[in-house]
Amino acid sequence: MKKILVIQNKRIGDVLIASLIAANIKQLFPNSRVDYFVYNYTTGVIENNPNIDRIIPINEKELKKIPNLVKKAGHIRRENYDIIFDPYSKFQSKFISFFSKASIRVGYQKKGKTSLFNSYTHNIHPLEKKTMPCGKSIEQRVHLVDSVFPLETPIYTPKLYLTDTEKKYSKLNNYSKPVVMVGVLGSTPQKSMPYSYIVALIDYVTSNFEVNILFNYAPNQKAEATKIYEACKHQEAIIFDLYESNIRGFISLMNQCKLLIANEGGSVHIAKALDKPTFTIFSPYVLKSDWASFEDGELHTSIHLLDEKPDLFSISREDRKKIEKDPTVLYNQLTPKIILKKLIPFLKHHIK
Q: Which CATH number is 329's domain given?
């Protein structure tokens, strides 16, 4: 039996997408054991996944301490893995991969770049651009497997696996109108659109559609979410106090909603994995070609400032870092009027 480890020390959306590595490698080695090494706050998106045999959670801050990193690398080495996939390909994961001594170690190596360690037996060049509707980020994960172990029928669609209890989630049963979840804040300030803009969008939806709006935000964002709630006109249409503090709870809650409107981030990937319609608002610095997955203009659609103003600015890799530091000026140009041109047809299609 082959022992396989996937190292994906990154955010929730990245870990969900990386579950495709397990789905694909299990096609080739159905009797293998596949483990995932991830940050502890992301484990919810891969729990109950039949392709993943064991989850190894790690605290993000603790792993950044060199003594802890060395200790964890020693634990991984003693597991005697045969294959390691490292879609993260940063210092910590490269260190662990190198010291694992697995006979096959697969990770990304940019052209012209050299590594401190000879971390991988198979250095895979990242894709330069997307070639499929799933978007480059998903295509990249599958490419990591396919480059070493050719796949006859690659799987490109991430899935979430709910228990019977999670499917029977009942906290929305008292609401007769369709529930539209709105991600009022991004996972970081740079991914959050101006508060007045999100209020304008919510006011339009509650004024023109028979729905309830459910706010989504991180636990540490409640004070900011409250400011947005208090600025909305139709507070009676907003479900503000219903909140799930863990990922599995959020997944169960999202599964009962009609659709999602949100800044690009983990919640969008979760909704898509549940086959829920999504309308994604991209921060100016985020590369839409990387993260806009499965968009068909109906089930999934999105808006980026460059959709409307393609000559306004450059989003090369170098410029992107500058924009990310403070995207406020550009974000202010992605006005509610621009967003509603796409959002209104989307809502009319899904809410009768």
A: 3.40.50.2000
